Amino acid sequence: MSHDSPTIPARDHKLLSFAVPCEDCGGWTERTIGPPGTRLPTQMTCAHCGVPQALDLPGHVDAEGRLDGCPRCDYHTLCIQKDVNGKLGVVLVLVTFGALLFSGLELPQMVAGLVLLALLDVVLLKLVVKRLLICYRCKAQYRGFPPGPRCRPFDLATWEAHDPTPDDAAR
Length: 171
Ligand SMILES: [Zn+2]
Ligand SMILES: [Zn+2]
Known about the structure:
Blueprint: E1 16-21, E2 28-33, E3 43-45, E4 52-54, E5 78-83, H1 86-101, H2 107-127, E6 130-135, E7 141-143, E8 152-153, H3 156-161, H4 166-170
The site of one zinc ion has 8 residues, from loops.
């Protein structure tokens, strides 16, 4: 594995799917590609304005099914992120934390509880959390594709370089 980092999960979604922004209206379209073995699409139709959008998946997926570069905008680097099911994770942590808070535990037990919570986080990362590939430039998301050789763990500096702040946009 070329991407071993404690914060990067090594599991992929079973189903291939993507969520890409529309060049014309800016709306996002989410699609699942399936069942397994289905030919990868070369374009998709925006769910909001109906304008066909280029999405060259076959041109960016290698023989092993790895995705490299963005099929939507052709940017060369995708970042690998944790695809945290935000709600589930937050709910789980809050419920556990709340239970600890109102359980009337003494401080040492409380600390033990928090340690457990941290462990739970690690276990979730290892067993539940899957990978998500995001384009640095157009922010398109791809699930179920193992990352290709040019994919990199999330890097905030690169992300911000492609994400002008409102200040920059106004200039
Ligand atoms: Zn559109
Ligand atoms: Zn892109």
